[in-house]
Automatic annotation (TrEMBL):
Member of the two-component regulatory system NreB/NreC involved in the control of dissimilatory nitrate/nitrite reduction in response to oxygen. NreB functions as a direct oxygen sensor histidine kinase which is autophosphorylated, in the absence of oxygen, probably at the conserved histidine residue, and transfers its phosphate group probably to a conserved aspartate residue of NreC. NreB/NreC activates the expression of the nitrate (narGHJI) and nitrite (nir) reductase operons, as well as the putative nitrate transporter gene narT. Its cofactor is [4Fe-4S] cluster. It holds the Pfam family HisKA_3. It comes from Blastococcus saxobsidens (strain DD2). Transmembrane segments: none annotated. This is Oxygen sensor histidine kinase NreB. PROSITE patterns: HIS_KIN (PS50109). Its EC number is 2.7.13.3. GO terms for cellular component: cytoplasm; membrane. Coiled coil: none annotated.
Amino acid sequence: MESLRLPYVAVLGIDGSVLASRGVPVTPVDDVPLVHQRLVVGVLRLAGVRGGPVVGPVLGALAHQLAPVVRALDLSRELQASRERLVLSREEERRRLRRELHDGLGPALAGLTLRVDTARNTVGRDPAVDRALRGLRDDVQEAVADVRRIVEDLRPAALDDLGLVGAIDALARRMGAGPLRVAVEADGLLPPLPAATEVAAYRIAQEAVTNAVRHAGPTAAEVRVRVGTDTDRSLTLVVEDDGCGPRTAPGRPGGGNGLATMREWAEELGGALVVGRRSGGGTVVRATLPLAAASGGTA
């Protein structure tokens, strides 16, 4: 656009959002539709366009090149939004199933065990009947154990029992039993959070502290949790330690499966995770998990 000497150029999506711009907006402006495969996917907005024999063809060629790029960006956004919805639905369903198994089927099976014991005491000492009832009791107890394993695999139990901050605090006490001191700080009482956000934040905190213990040799670590205001609908999780520092360049991907996994947990919710060096030595892991798209899924 420098060759056309335009004071302002912007590329807008189909929803009117500014995807890219340069210069300061002035009026009047000219809008050139961006059409990809007969579908209008955006607008090329320009200010200060002057007429001339080459201006029209140049703008047409530019719009033709920009249209597939804008469409690809739009499809990428739709894919990410779909991925976020799937993750949110999955974790909400897991939370629901865990509650039903924990509060319904588990106690029912435990009660069945007591009824079998009562039957054994009632029928007397017939060896055949007693063996059959003992076998039934063993089967029920095995089913109870299976239900407990399924419940634990669906979702960390501490999240439902203690909430996010309480679960992280319990985790900190377990991991701080040795020479490592782990402190947990939160900005007051957190509001109800989507199940997917709770799980991601808990697992990132767990993995970040575990990575520090395995690779950095820290003596102290701190986990901070903050939920933004109405205009900043996100949860921020910061994990700091005073160890030997990150194994990769700050903010760069890589560094082993642990960092890659933490980054994946954040990104599948539309968030981000950055690893950097702590002032004074050590590592800082900062995860930002948006809440706006998930606000309707809390329970």
